[in-house]
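Exam revision sheet. Question 4 asks you to relate a sequence to its structure. Input first:
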Amino acid sequence: MKLTRYTDYSLRVLMYLATRQEGQLVNIKTISEIYNISKNHLMKIIYDLGKSGYVETVRGRNGGIRLAMPPEEINIGEVVRKTEEDFYVVECFDKVNDKCILSDACRLRGVLNNALNSFLEVLDDYTLGDLILNKDRLKEMMKDS
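Answer key, structure tokens:
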């Protein structure tokens, strides 16, 4: 299973925010520079994280973003499900018949779906708080530019 960059960046933004003092506002430019992510791409990610309730945005001159809830309440499996566009591990259709010639007897799709479900179940066992147990070290590595 390979996650999209969108999900990777979403998790990294959440991790960064979780290493800040509770309630501390951070501007998008700071995160963009630390992770070397396009500011425009990051704005879309933050918008979606806000719609999902993970991030709070504050407008204005002294505005910024912060976590909308404690890191221990943000489930990693849930974040991945909300940020991935699809979970098709294998494409079971041909372009002509819109159906794989093996679909009536093939077990590949079922096996891969089991693997995907196991992957997500493992992620369900972790929160953002678990990812930042070494908060001080992470904060040191993510120094503001």
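Marking note for examiners. The chain has seven helices and two strands.
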